[in-house]
Fold this sequence. Notes:
It is built from eight helices and six strands; from the N terminus they run ααβααβββαβαβαα. The protein is α+β, with helices and mostly antiparallel strands. It folds into two domains: 20-102 and 158-202, Rossmann fold (3-Layer(aba) Sandwich), CATH 3.40.50; 103-138. β3 and β4 (112-116) form a beta hairpin. The mean pLDDT is 86.
Amino acid sequence: ExxxxxxxxxxxxxxxxxxxxxxxxxxxxxxxxxxxxxxVEIQNKHVKDLAAFDLNNLRWSKxxxxxxxxxxxxxxxxxxxxxxxxxxxxxxxxxxVYIAETPLFEINCGxxxxxxxxxxxxxxxxKALEGKKYKIDRSKGLGENDPDMMWLTTMNPxxxxxxxxxPEDVERTAEVFDLLLGDNLxxxxxxxxxxxxxxxxxADIS
Length: 206
């Protein structure tokens, strides 16, 4: 009645590096822009049938990015943010863009369910349930959630958690994204050498 879901189905083009010809050839990107309704803040021959930006034509009061709470999900989130940052920066500047936090754990005890968004929250919930029988499940990816679960975790304004994206967040994200996925090989090596040890427990090394 008042919300719409647009599935992205995987990683979109890195709009930070791609030229406009490639960006506007991407069907998922042009479809996303059409769903938003506000057009793009780009004047370029490759824009073709997309409208010039007009905030009054935005169809939604919030643009919420929902991705899985894993490394792939974070990268997809960053790619979508980067797309908005490059094509419709006013949406971010005016506070229309949000990120939906995705729970990592589902904890069931009797007929009650709790969602934990971090290991600390999981530990706190388990501590509160001490002496009771409970079950902990790793939350499924968004694509595997049934409608009731999607409603509880992502769609219901009463229970979901949203983080408003601020302009400085995106600028910093774009800088780091550029460093990690851009052309500056030496800068990337230096960054990994200086900071890599902090993330060894997350590294997929075999």
